[in-house]
Structures are given as structure tokens and as C-alpha cells.
Design a protein that fits this description.
This protein is α+β, with helices and mostly antiparallel strands and 627 residues long. It has helices spanning 11-78, 85-106, 110-138, 145-228, 242-283, 287-301, 345-349, 403-433, 444-461, 475-482, 484-501, 525-541, 570-586, 599-610, 614-617; strands at 306-313, 318-325, 353-355, 375-383, 386-395, 442-443, 465-472, 507-512, 515-521, 544-547, 550-552, 556-562, 592-594.
């Protein structure tokens, strides 16, 4: 997952700081607005109150001035114009001043302006009448009764206009009071809204911040729980902030753990395959089973569409195909088309060699496994300091073998090579332990278990088995006369005669000293006697070269037993044949005797045989005293 930008790693902190700052700013704005609105409302209330107080005062002053003017006019009219004219002038001045004040205070209020102008018009009309009447009195005239009545009428109109103004002021004050009540209610409602906002807004901002922070955390927690439950999940970075960075780190951890788990599981599977191969190698009965196990292991650990396993034939120093797979594989058992094993680069280097691109003319190609293109790996099978064979792996694509594949193939080659070398060593040692060094025949160690197996098979298949025991006549005298080397040569000549006389299915062994045994498969007593006679005659006719220009002859005595007549076990059959051999020697030697079948003969033969164990007779292997 792509790492988040470092600048975005503090987004949540900035978000929290921004949220708190927003609350502070909103609270400051709300406080300032509240203060401003309350201040404006208070100022407006005071202004309206002061205005109406001034209007009422000016209206009162106007009413008083108008009454004073009317009173002064009446006083002058009653005194014939000789009253206090200054008082009249002062009253008129006060009346004018009050009117001017009312005009100033009523400015902007059309209804009040009309009422004030109406009062001014009435007072002006009354003043004009009063001025005329007072001037007439000064000149000797005076107002008539009609004029006096007009003056009173005008004075009444002034009072009515002032009354109308008073009523208008009262009505306008009531309207203003209602407007102030409405404004006060608006301020109250605003304060309620601001208070509610002050309570709700932090909750809303806090809830938004919680959802903004906790929702991604909850999703991360659910994803982690699903991962623990074994589900296939991905940690997704929803935003470029600290939580997104956490999701990115968790995803990197998940991918890393998953990769390590897959690698560990692959290594465990590889180790299990190698362990299984080791167990298979330990229980394999022959090289074929070893090679078959190697092919299966290679298919699991180093799969290749084509390849082969070749083993070195020690007798011919050639590579022989033990297993092959792929298109047109070589035949199993066929020799590799090379004159020497080191024509394979892997064997020559004694380590794995990979021809990365066979088509490249500069590439060293393997002559034992030819390919026109792709890649070829030669993995030698070495053990105990010797090359046991080689594994060839071929892939159609160039540069397709990685070091891990070669390492695993080398592990397989190492195990199989060691097992094959051990098997060959065991086979060689078994052969040496069960083969007579002088004659090349099998020995008693091999023959005893073999005879027991053949007796069991004979009984199972209801087929006879013949047994011959042969002893060279006067062999001690032969050794004393001609020397032990001549005796050894005589035994080797006898071994050649026995091998040339019996069938390939029969087995002959040097049982001890000059004593030999022959197991004849599917041969009854009569047939076994014929074979024994044939061997006796061949020995009698044979001339042994015991030195340059020196020759000698030997003869042999034979005892014969067979399971079709003598139904006994392995020891009993050997005892009967041995007893027959002794009768042949007692009867003059160079003859064949068949075993008796009476119980007494069986007991006597067993006792004689027990006194002549093969281990005692094998004390002198090259030659022995004659019996």
C-alpha cells in the first residue's frame, strides 16, 4: 500500500483544533451579535422613550404656550390694548419655540408632522387674528363682536389641534410601544436561539468529530477482528489522516505477515517433502524405488516439464537413464549418448550448473541432456566423495531457474545420492559377505537362508527341491602333494565345472573347505541324482593345471536328497544329504549316494551334521583337510 503523505499525518489534530477554533469563533460571533443586538435594542428603546418624552414635553409646552397666548390676548382685549404686550410676545415666542421643537422631533414621522403642521397652522391663524385685534385696539378701534367670536373660535381650533396632536402622540406612543414589545420579543427569541445554539452546536460539532474519528476506527476494528477470524481482508486508508496512516501501516503489516506465512508454509511443505523423501529413502528396497521417490519430490519442489535422472554404472563408467519425463523422454535403462560421465557440466564441476539460455551460442550445453531452447539445470548426485548420478531439469523458457529451485533440487539430489551410495555399498558388502572370495561362488552365509526360502516356496507351490552336497576326495593329500596353490586352483576348477553343469535357476555354493552344495529347483530325487552323476563324471574327466606343465586330477563324492521323498525341514534335508555323502566316501569315494528315508537314518544324520557345523569347517577357507 502507498504510504500516506507526511503532511497529512496530523489531519485529525488539525480537525480537532479546527473544531475547537470554530466553536470559539462561533461563540465569539454569537456573543458579539448578542451584545450588538441588545445594545441596539436598548438604544432604540431609550431613543424612542426619550423622543416621546420630548414630544410630550414639547406638546405640553405648546399647550401651555397656546393657553398663555390666548389668556394674554383676552387680557389685552379686555384692557383695550393697554395690557402687558411683552407677556403676549413671550407667550407667542414660547409657542413658536414649542412648535419648532415638535417639528424637529416629529421629523420622519409623517403622521406627527401633519398634526404638528395643523397645530402650527391654527396657532399661526390665531396669532394673525390676535395681532390684528391688538393693533386695532392701539389705533383706537377694536374687534367687533363678530371678530371676537372668530378669535374665540380660532383659539378653540388651536386647542382642538393641540388635543389632536396629543391624541396622535398617545396613539403613536402606543404603536411604538407595541413595536418595542415586538422588538423585545425578537431579541428574547434571538437570545433563546443563541442559547440553544450554544448548547446544540458544541454537541453537533462533538458528534461530527466523533463520527469523523470513531467511524473509521470502528471499521478498522471490524477489519482486524475479521482478520483474526481467518477471513481475507484489506485495511483501506479512507482518508489522508492519522487513521489512514494507521490503516496503511496495518495493511503493510498484514501483507508482510501474509507473505511470511506463505513463505513459512512453503518452507514447511518443502521440509515435509524432504522429510518424506528421507523416510522413503530409508525404506527403499532398490535403486528403482529411490529414483521413483526422487522424481516425485522433484515434481513438488522443482517442477519442470521435462527432465531425467541418470545413475552412474560403476562397471562401465557410463550414465544410465534411471527415470525420465516430458515430451519424447529417453528409454529407462538406456545409456546416455556421451563417452564419459564428465561430459555433463554438473558432474564436471561437482556442483549444480544452469544453462540459462540453451539457444545462446555462448552457453555451455549438457551433452547428456540435449535441448534446443529454454533452460537446463544439471544437478550432480554426489555422496561419499563419488558421483552417483545426475539430475537434469529442463524448462521451455530461458532464465527460468531461480536459486531456490536449484537449492531444493540439490537437496533432493543429495538425499537420493547418499541413499543410492549406501544401497550400493550395502549391496557390495552383502555380496562380499555372501560370496566366496576364492571361487566366486555363494557361501554358507547366503546358502542357508536361501535354502530355507526355497523349501518354503517348494512346499507352497507343491514342487520338489533337490539338494546335493559334494566333497573333494582326499583333498588334504592333494594339498600335501601339490601344494596349497594347486589346491586352490583345483577348487576354482571345480567351481567352474559346477557353474557349467547346473541350470541358471539352480544355486551352487562353497559350503566350507572342499565341500560344496547345490540347490536344484523343481527337481525330484531321481533328477537330482542324475545331475549329481553328471557333476561327478565331469569332475572325474577334468584335468587341473596346477603349474607350468604340471597337471592333476581330482574326484568328488556326492550325497543327494530331495523333498519329494524326504519331507523334512532345512536342517533335516542338509543332514540327510550329508549322511548320503558320508556313505559315498565310505563306499569308496568318487560316487553318488542318495539319502535314506528311515527315522533311524534321519536321527543319525542329524547327529553327524550337528558335529560338523559349517563354521567349524570354514576355519581354513582356501583349502581343508580331507574328510
Amino acid at each position: 500500500m502507498t504510504a500516506l503523505r507526511p503532511a497529512a499525518r496530523h489531519s485529525i489534530r488539525r480537525l480537532l483544533v479546527g473544531g475547537v477554533a470554530l466553536l470559539v469563533v462561533l461563540a465569539a460571533i454569537a456573543s458579539a451579535a448578542t451584545i450588538a443586538i441588545v445594545s441596539v435594542s436598548t438604544e432604540r428603546f431609550a431613543s424612542v422613550t426619550d423622543r416621546f418624552s420630548a414630544l410630550m414635553d414639547a406638546q405640553t409646552d405648546l399647550a401651555l404656550a397656546a393657553s398663555a397666548t390666548a389668556a394674554e390676548v383676552r387680557e389685552l382685549l379686555l384692557n383695550g390694548g393697554n395690557g402687558d404686550l411683552a407677556a403676549y410676545e413671550a407667550a407667542r415666542h414660547a409657542e413658536t419655540h414649542a412648535q419648532d421643537t415638535l417639528n424637529d422631533l416629529a421629523a420622519g414621522d409623517g403622521g406627527l408632522v401633519i398634526l404638528v403642521e395643523a397645530v402650527r397652522a391654527r396657532t399661526d391663524g390665531y396669532g394673525a387674528w390676535a395681532d390684528v385685534a391688538i393693533e386695532a385696539l392701539r389705533t383706537g378701534g377694536g374687534p367687533s363682536a363678530a371678530d371676537a367670536a372668530d378669535g374665540e373660535h380660532l383659539a378653540t381650533e388651536v386647542q382642538d389641534a393641540i388635543g389632536n396632536l396629543d391624541a396622535g402622540l398617545v396613539a403613536r406612543r402606543e404603536v411604538s410601544r407595541r413595536e418595542l414589545d415586538v422588538g423585545s420579543l425578537g431579541v428574547t427569541l434571538y437570545l433563546v436561539i443563541v442559547s440553544a445554539g450554544a448548547a446544540i452546536l458544541p454537541l453537533a460539532v462533538g458528534f461530527w468529530l466523533i463520527r469523523r474519528i470513531s467511524a473509521p476506527l470502528r471499521r478498522l476494528n471490524r477489519t482486524a477482528a475479521a482478520l483474526v477470524a481467518g477471513e481475507s481482508v484489506i485495511f483501506r486508508a479512507e482518508r489522508d489522516d492519522e487513521i489512514g496512516a494507521l490503516a496503511g501501516v496495518l495493511e503493510q503489516l498484514r501483507v508482510g505477515v501474509e507473505e511470511r506465512f506463505v513463505a513459512a508454509r512453503g518452507e514447511a511443505q518443502q521440509a515435509a517433502t524432504l522429510n518424506q523423501l528421507g523416510e522413503l529413502m530409508s525404506f527403499a528396497a532398490n535403486e528403482e524405488e529411490l529414483v521413483a521417490g526422487a522424481v516425485v519430490a522433484l515434481g513438488r519442489l522443482a517442477e519442470s516439464p521435462s527432465g531425467d535422472v541418470m545413475l552412474v554404472n560403476n562397471s562401465t563408467n557410463r550414465l544410465m537413464v534411471a527415470a525420465a519425463w516430458g515430451a519424447d523422454p529417453p528409454a529407462v535403462g538406456a545409456p546416455a549418448d556421451i563417452e564419459r560421465t564428465d561430459r555433463c557440466p554438473g558432474i564436471r564441476r561437482a556442483s549444480a550448473y544452469v544453462a540459462a539460455d540453451v539457444a545462446d551460442e555462448m552457453t555451455v550445453r549438457c551433452s547428456a541432456h540435449r535441448a534446443a531452447s529454454g533452460s537446463v539445470a544439471c544437478v550432480p548426485m554426489t555422496a561419499l566423495g563419488q558421483v552417483v548420478g545426475v539430475i537434469h531439469l529442463e524448462r521451455t523458457e530461458a532464465n527460468s531457474f531461480d536459486p531456490e529451485t536449484i537449492r531444493l533440487a540439490a537437496r533432493v539430489a543429495e538425499q537420493v545420492a547418499l541413499a543410492a551410495a549406501n544401497a550400493r555399498l550395502m549391496k557390495t558388502m552383502e555380496g562380499l559377505a555372501m560370496t566366496d572370495a576364492l571361487t566366486g561362488l555363494r557361501n554358507a552365509r547366503f546358502f542357508d537362508p536361501y535354502l530355507e526360502q526355497e523349501l518354503a516356496a517348494s512346499e507352497r507351490d507343491q514342487l520338489p527341491l533337490g539338494l546335493l552336497i559334494l566333497d573333494v576326495d582326499h583333498f588334504k593329500r592333494f594339498n600335501d602333494t601339490h601344494g596349497h596353490p594347486a589346491g586352490d586352483e583345483a577348487l576354482r576348477a571345480l567351481a567352474r565345472i559346477l557353474r557349467g553343469t547346473i541350470r541358471s535357476s539352480d544355486v551352487v555354493a562353497r559350503y566350507g573347505g572342499e565341500e560344496f552344495v547345490v540347490a536344484l529347483r523343481h527337481a525330484g530325487l531321481d533328477e537330482a541324482r542324475k545331475v549329481a552323476e553328471k557333476i561327478r563324471a565331469a569332475v572325474e574327466r577334468n584335468v587341473v593345471e596346477i603349474g607350468p606343465g604340471r597337471y592333476a586330477r581330482i574326484t568328488a563324492s556326492l550325497g543327494v536328497a530331495a523333498t519329494d521323498v524326504h519331507r523334512v525341514d532345512q536342517k533335516g534335508l542338509m543332514a540327510l544329504a550329508d549322511a548320503a555323502l558320508y556313505r559315498a566316501k565310505e563306499g569308496g569315494r568318487n560316487r553318488v549316494e542318495t539319502a535314506a528315508s528311515s527315522a533311524a537314518d534321519l536321527g543319525a544324520a542329524a547327529r553327524r551334521r550337528a558335529g560338523r557345523a559349517p563354521e567349524a569347517r570354514m576355519a581354513t577357507v582356501p583349502s581343508s583337510e580331507t574328510t
